[in-house]
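[recover] target loaded
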C-alpha cells in the first residue's frame, strides 16, 4: 500500500456533481497539481478537511471546470492514509480529463473497493463494517439502509467482540495460572470454563438466529406470483414494480417463462417472479413455462396466489391453491375488484387469513398488501441494538465457532484436562475472528472487496 491511487467516486454518466478521490503518499501534493484554489493557499498546505474553491485543471494545466477540494491527512482519514478529494460538475469528460491529469502526476487507477480495503488494512474499519459499506450502497429499502448504517457504526462488531473477549478472558486466565504459579492469581476452576462455554454458545446461537432477517434485508424475499392464466398475475407484477415489466394481453398463456423484478412492498424487498399460468397445455414452450412456475413456487419463501374475483374457482385455481398452501408464507390476492364479485371469499379466508381484494388494472386495494407483507417478514427497528448476520461468510465462521465450543463442552463433561479444552476454545476464537477480519485470510478479503465499485 505504498503507492498513490485515484478514481472517480461517483456513478458513471452525467450528473450534477462529480467526485475524484485520491489516497496514498503525496495525495495532497498530487491533487494540488490538478486543483488551483481561488485563494492564495496551495491545496497541500490547507488545513485538514477545509473546503477550498478553485479551478480544476487538465494535465496541460488548462482550466476545465470550477469546483471544491479538500485534504484529509493520516491517520484521521477514511483510509487511514493521506487523502484528497476533488468535487466538480458531473461531466464524464471533465472527470476523465481530471483523472488523466492525476495519473500524469503520479497516481494509478484504484481497483474495485481499494479505498475501503485500505481502510480495513489500516484498522479504520473491521470486516463487518467494510461489508456494511457495500450493503449500504446496495440498500433498496429504508430498513436495509438503517441496518447497514448500524453495522457501519459497529453494532455487529460490538456483539462479536463481546463473545470474543469472554473467551479470551478464560484462555488468558488459564495461561496466567500456568505460567505464573507464584503470583497471587485466583486458581483456574472447571466452573469458570463451563460458564464461558455456555455463554459463548448462547450468544452464537442468538447471532445465528438473526441470519434469516439479515439475508432478507440485504437480498430480499424470494416471492412467486402464482395462478392460472388470465387472472392478472402480470398486471399485478407491473402494478407492484410501477412500470410495464411484463406483457399483458387477454390471450391465455401470454407469459411462457418466468419474469423477475424487484419491488419494495410494506418496506420489505420482494424478489418477484411472475410465472406462466398453471394449466394443461399441448404447447411445448408453455408446458416448460408451467414446469418452471411450479419450481419457482416450491423455492419461494412467499407466494402471492392470484385468483379472479369475477369468476368461480376452476380446477386450475384449485391446483394453484394446493401448491400455494405448501409455501412457507402465502397471501391470497383476489383480483379484478373493478368487476362484479362472484368468488366466495368466506370459503377462501378459512385457508388464507392473509387475503386482500385488488384491481391490478388500476392499482385499487394494493395498499392493503404492504401491511400483510410487513407482518409476515418483519424488518426490525434498525436501531442500535440490531446486530444481524447478513451473509453466508459470517454464518459459516460463527457456525465453526459453535462447533469448537460444543467440542470443548463435550470434553469438559468427559473430564478432558483444561489445556486440551482450551485448544478448542482457541480454535473457536480463530473462527470468530474471521467475522471481523482479525484472523481472516487474504483470499477471503480479496473476494469481499471485489463486490465493491471502483472509487469506494
Amino acid at each position: 500500500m505504498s503507492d498513490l491511487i485515484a478514481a472517480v467516486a461517483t456513478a458513471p454518466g452525467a450528473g450534477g456533481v462529480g467526485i475524484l478521490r485520491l489516497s496514498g503518499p503525496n495525495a495532497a501534493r498530487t491533487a494540488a497539481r490538478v486543483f488551483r484554489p481561488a485563494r492564495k493557499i496551495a491545496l497541500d498546505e490547507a488545513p485538514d478537511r477545509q473546503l477550498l474553491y478553485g479551478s480544476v485543471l487538465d494535465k496541460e494545466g488548462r482550466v476545465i471546470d470550477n469546483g471544491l477540494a479538500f485534504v484529509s491527512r493520516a491517520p484521521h482519514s477514511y483510509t487511514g492514509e493521506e487523502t484528497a478529494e476533488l468535487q466538480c460538475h458531473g461531466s464524464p469528460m471533465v472527470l476523465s480529463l481530471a483523472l488523466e491529469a492525476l495519473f500524469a502526476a503520479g497516481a494509478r487507477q484504484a481497483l474495485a473497493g481499494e479505498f475501503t480495503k485500505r481502510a480495513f488494512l489500516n484498522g479504520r474499519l473491521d470486516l463487518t463494517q467494510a461489508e456494511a459499506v457495500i450493503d449500504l450502497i446496495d440498500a433498496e429499502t429504508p430498513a436495509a439502509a438503517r441496518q447497514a448504517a448500524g453495522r457501519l457504526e459497529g453494532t455487529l462488531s460490538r456483539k462479536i467482540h463481546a463473545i470474543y473477549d469472554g473467551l479470551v478472558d478464560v484462555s488468558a486466565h488459564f495461561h496466567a495460572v500456568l505460567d505464573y504459579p507464584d503470583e497471587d492469581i485466583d486458581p483456574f476452576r472447571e466452573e469458570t470454563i463451563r460458564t464461558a462455554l455456555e455463554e459463548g454458545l448462547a450468544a452464537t446461537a442468538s447471532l445465528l438466529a438473526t441470519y434469516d432477517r439479515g439475508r432478507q434485508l440485504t437480498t430480499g424475499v424470494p416471492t412467486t406470483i402464482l395462478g392460472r392464466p388470465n387472472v392478472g398475475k402480470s398486471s399485478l407484477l407491473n402494478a407492484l414494480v410501477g412500470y410495464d415489466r411484463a406483457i399483458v394481453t387477454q390471450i391465455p398463456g401470454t407469459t411462457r417463462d418466468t419474469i423477475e423484478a424487484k419491488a419494495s412492498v410494506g418496506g420489505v424487498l420482494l424478489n418477484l417472479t411472475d410465472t406462466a399460468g398453471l394449466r394443461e397445455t399441448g404447447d411445448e414452450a408453455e408446458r416448460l413455462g408451467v414446469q418452471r412456475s411450479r419450481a419457482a413456487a416450491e423455492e419461494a419463501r412467499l407466494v402471492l396466489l392470484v385468483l379472479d374475483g369475477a369468476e368461480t374457482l376452476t380446477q386450475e385455481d384449485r391446483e394453484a391453491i394446493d401448491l400455494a398452501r405448501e409455501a412457507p408464507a402465502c397471501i391470497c390476492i383476489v383480483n379484478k375488484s373493478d368487476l362484479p364479485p362472484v368468488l366466495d371469499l368466506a370459503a377462501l379466508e378459512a385457508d388464507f387469513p392473509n387475503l386482500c381484494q385488488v384491481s391490478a388494472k388500476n392499482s385499487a386495494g394494493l395498499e392493503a398488501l404492504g401491511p400483510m407483507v410487513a407482518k409476515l417478514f418483519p424488518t426490525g427497528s434498525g436501531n442500535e441494538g440490531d446486530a444481524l448476520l447478513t451473509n453466508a461468510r459470517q454464518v459459516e465462521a460463527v457456525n465453526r465457532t459453535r462447533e469448537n465450543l460444543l467440542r470443548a463442552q463435550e470434553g469438559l463433561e468427559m473430564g478432558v484436562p483444561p489445556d486440551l479444552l482450551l485448544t478448542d476454545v482457541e480454535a473457536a476464537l480463530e473462527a470468530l475472528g474471521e467475522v471481523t477480519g482479525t484472523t481472516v485470510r487474504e483470499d477471503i478479503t480479496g473476494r469481499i472487496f471485489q463486490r465493491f465499485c471502483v472509487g469506494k
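[recover] notes: Residues 251-256 have pLDDT under 50 and may be disordered.
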